[in-house]
């Protein structure tokens, strides 16, 4: 006891970290055919995140660019269904109905294992909390992922706003209506909405780690992302495509509107994923370990 009391704060911290790592690693030795334990999910999440940290920057940028392209299929379906329902239902009913096709892009991204910022936010925070990576390395990785996601989205915005009217599957008025719907609300409202959206996307990543088969994963993605759309919560990547596309075709939407929305939604999503999921889930596990 005397020896323990004479330890420096740094030594006590290192000892505590070794104990945390031992508890997390115990999960890898358990044989459990049922639901995964908290420790198993945490171990899997940290392992997956570390694999992402160890990837080449070009690989991360390309994968995140692919995610920006793939999630755009949600926008394509939103516009197409809106155009199909226009005149048959009022606008409120249309926006509630098209939320059912909103998950398609997310399913393509997640099952295709491309890197989407909002799904990775909480995941990439866990190694920092576990002292395996630094905050600087996390922010650098976030920057790469966001850049790739946005570039992919910009490219598809140009393609879809050109293609839609020519295929006669939607027109520019539909694109404008969707963008204006996303922009509805003050900056504080969008920020809090984005926090909740980031929270849900972080939970999505956590729940996916707890599932063991593809059908369960599809159901989880569908449920979480349908809630996002039905409730009108703000997602920074699909929202970027919606608002940027509106900026391309509408005189009512200016670059300043897009930049204000995008910065607000990104900050909210990051805060919601990192704080409400990564920190809370991690601390909940740590509090179970004796001091």
From TrEMBL:
**Could you tell me the membrane topology recorded for this protein?**
Multi-pass membrane protein
Q: What is its main location?
A: membrane
Compositionally biased tracts (Basic and acidic residues): 7-36
Gene Ontology cellular-component terms for this entry are: plasma membrane
Q: Where are the transmembrane segments?
A: 60-84, 104-129, 141-163, 183-206, 218-238, 258-280
Sorted UniProt keywords = Membrane, Transmembrane, Transmembrane helix
Keyword Transmembrane helix present in the record's keywords: the answer is yes
Task: Give the region (Disordered) as residue ranges.
Answer: 1-36
| PANTHER family in UniProt | FORMATE TRANSPORTER-RELATED, INNER MEMBRANE PROTEIN YFDC
Q: What is this protein called?
A: Formate/nitrite transporter family protein
The source organism is Algoriphagus formosus
Task: Provide the organism lineage as a comma list.
Answer: Bacteria, Pseudomonadati, Bacteroidota, Cytophagia, Cytophagales
